Amino acid sequence: MPWSQAGSSKLTQSEAPSEAVESALQAAEMAVERERIRIAREIHDGLAADVAGAISLLKLYLQSDGPQADRENTIVGVLGILETQLAATREWLRSMRPDRLGPAHLVEAVRKLADEIGRLHAIRIEVWTSGPAERLSESQREVAYYIVREALNNIRKHSGAAVCRVRMAFDANPFLIEITDEGKGFMTNNGAGYGLVGMRERAAGIGGRLEVVTTLDRGTTVFLFGPT
Predict the structure, then answer these.
(1) What is the pLDDT of residues 20-60, one digit of tens each?
(2) CA distance 68 to 193
(3) DSSP assignment of 130-151, as one string?
(4) Residue 169 reports pLDDT greater than 90
(5) pTM for the structure as a whole
(6) Among 2, 105, 206, 221, which is 20 to 30 Å from 138 by CA?
């Protein structure tokens, strides 16, 4: 074999490990970035949302001059939020994974969430379901719960609505989650906050999609469509 060909062959062989290492490093960097996004989303959807709720109640307590019993109930609500979030944060730090929701627990968890937000913030939240939650996979149940939670927190913080409705149609194809309020609505070009981005990412992560329909002074509806 001529020298030039032998040298070319050796060069190609020496470059191969370098390319494999570079590819592995790029894959690792992408995995780390995805994990950072996931952790940021978990903190936003969980810890940050509950702390914001506690702060809102504390402001109400400080600004209120109502009956002492009502003020005490507000403080009890703050303590409840903080205690619940402390326990959830400890569990999250131990596992670094979101809580798992079994089929029998999804509707129960959504109703409990609706009851807590409704009681603490004087919002009537109606929850309707159809079909068995067992039709959803574990990851789909988690996404359904967190999108309902984020939508309800947005209603609590921004809409000013006194009434909202959660509909979970597990028997639809694809399954459909719908959260509707009768609040202020918002300009659609201002609706790309981190919470909405996270909701869209979660929906896409299970092969579904998220749609938002909003009209100023008439309210907002969030739709989660499952994968077809």
Answers:
(1) 667 767 766 776 676 677 677 777 777 777 788 888 888 87
(2) 38
(3) ES-GGGS-HHHHHHHHHHHHHH
(4) yes
(5) 0.59
(6) 221
Return the residue matching tokens 């070009």.
Answer: 189
122: left (phi > 0), else alpha (psi -120 to 50), else beta?
left
Pairing status of strand 219-225 against strand 124-130: unpaired
| Cβ pair 135, 174 in contact under 8 A | no
Helix or strand run (H / E) with residue 181: strand 176-181
Cα Rg, the chain, nearest whole Å: 24
Alpha helix positions (H), the chain: 3-43, 49-63, 68-95, 103-121, 138-154, 194-205
**CA 51/CA 88 separation, integer angstroms:** 13
Paired with 124 in beta bridges are 163
Please say whether the beta carbons of 189 and 177 come within 8 A.
Answer: no
User: What is the sign of the dihedral through the CA atoms of 109, 84, 155 and 198?
Assistant: negative
